[in-house]
Specification:
Number of helices: 15
Largest sheet: 7 strands, mixed
Strand order of the largest sheet: 4-12-11-10-7-5-6
Shape: globular
Radius of gyration: 22 Å
Strand content: 15-25%
Helix content: 40-55%
Number of strands: 16
Bound molecules: pyridoxal-5'-phosphate
Length: about 425
């Protein structure tokens, strides 16, 4: 075995498929969000970030930074141990109380990331339940898929948001068998929302447990920022709510919230929770400050929704192929991995606009896109600049515009629906 060559070929494969990932080296600037310094070799330039998951700019909120600095100043940098062996710091305990309250649940448990929370909680719950069948939405995030796999339980994948398909799988399993439905509220690549109430109804009818990933909704939806389940008054209909502290809350970490016995079982049985160092007190304190602020302040949520809608309207009116989205996410279709990467490079190098290309396997082949995430800090002026830069890029690279904005078709059959309007699909 030529090990060196093996790994080189694995990388070459990604280059050949035009999906080798290149990371932008960024330095965010406090007080000037969404501006950042981008370093390319020896060159350093100021650019505008249009693809951050710091959806509300809370990572730079003065209260959040102050809480982090204060806790680090008083308690130091690290937690000093696992949760079991000296790492359970007071700010982390407070954070768990804050999260349980946010979702109106008996208890919450914090993990070192949202990825780990999904992997650890789904695998542990499904492993503890005897002969559990997992019903998993086909577009679930990689971390949920990992949890399903690690559980060792049987799984059935239901078509995305397809209630009839889900019901047929539930009915086939019968009411006696243990069942866990795992799904998301906001799907982050398309920006669509799942039918939570109807899924909860089905779970009730067939006696299944429910597990929802609200990672792209917490902080941003609901009167207290508890996510779509908060907005729709459905938190008590879902057994386990999972979220992240790293997106709208602007810090780091993941969590689950639910009934005390379920949370305690995950705490007691999940290796991904037990055998790793606890979140540092400064991060926990910052997360709590962020959650508390967003429990009371609607300003950031309103401004984000307003600027996201404005971005969709302005880009659509310019003829850019904005994909339909019910949420704050603004996906713009490119439909080809190489063009997607080229568009992203051109935006950064010529226009100082950073939007990471989203290619397979994150999204299906042929639906490669630029995923734009406007925040309260992306002003009308910045949106105008984005539109001009995208138009220049689309024209320069020959990327298809939205069908209705094409030159007047000679006959109606030349109108191509957006879904099949893919360059090199
Ligand atoms: C980002 C993401 C996660 C992981 O959260 P992290 O805190 O970044 O590890 C989980 N689920 C979904 C749907 C995500 O997009």
């Amino acid at each position: 075995m030529d090990y060196q060559r093996f790994f080189e070929e694995a990388i070459d494969q990604l280059h050949a498929e035009k999906r080798y990932r290149v990371f932008a080296n960024l330095e965010r600037i406090v007080g000037r969000f969404p501006r950042a310094i981008w370093r390319d070799g020896s060159e350093a330039r100021e650019i505008t970030v249009w693809c951050s998951n710091d959806y509300l700019g809370m990572g730079q909120h003065p209260d959040v930074i102050a809480a982090m600095q204060d806790a680090a100043g008083r308690m130091g940098s690290g937690a000093g141990g696992t949760r079991n062996i000296s790492g359970t710091n007071h700010p982390l305990v407070e954070l768990e109380h804050e999260l349980a309250d946010l979702h109106g649940k008996e208890a919450a448990l914090v993990f070192t990331s949202g990825f780990i929370s999904n992997e650890a909680a789904i695998s542990t719950v499904a492993r503890l339940l005897p002969d559990c069948l997992i019903l998993s939405d086909e577009l679930n995030h990689a971390s949920m898929i990992e949890g399903v796999r690690r559980s060792g339980a049987e799984k059935k994948i239901f078509r995305h948001n397809d209630l009839a398909h889900l019901e047929s799988l539930l009915a086939a399993a019968g009411p006696e068998r243990a069942k866990l439905i795992v799904f998301e509220s906001v799907y982050s690549m398309d920006g669509d929302v799942s039918p939570i109430e109807k899924i909860a109804d089905l779970a009730g009818k067939y006696n299944a447990m429910t597990y929802i990933d609200e990672v792209h909704a917490v902080g941003m939806y609901g009167p207290r920022g508890g996510g779509i389940t908060d907005r729709e008054g459905l938190a008590d209909r879902i057994d386990i709510i999972e979220g992240t502290l790293a997106k709208a809350f602007g810090t780091l970490g993941g969590y689950i919230a639910g009934r005390r016995a379920v949370v305690d079982a995950v705490r007691s049985y999940a290796p991904g929770f037990i055998f790793t160092t606890a979140l540092p007190p400064a991060i926990a304190a910052a997360a709590t400050a962020s959650i508390r602020h967003l429990k009371h302040s609607q300003t950031e949520r309103d401004a984000q929704q307003r600027q996201a809608k404005r971005a969709k309207d302005v880009l659509s009116a310019a003829g850019l192929p904005v994909m339909p989205s019910e949420t704050h996410i603004v996906p713009v279709l490119v439909g080809d991995p190489e063009l997607c990467k080229k568009a992203s490079d051109r935006l950064l190098e010529i226009h100082g606009i950073y939007i990471q290309p989203i290619n397979y396997p994150t999204v299906p082949r042929g639906t490669e896109r630029l995923r734009i995430t406007p925040t309260p800090f992306h002003s009308d002026e910045l949106i105008g600049g984005l539109k001009d830069a995208l138009l220049e890029t689309w024209q320069a690279l020959g990327i298809p515009f939205a069908p209705e904005k094409r030159e007047a078709p000679a006959s109606s059959e030349r109108i191509v629906p957006l879904a099949v309007n893919k360059a090199g699909g």
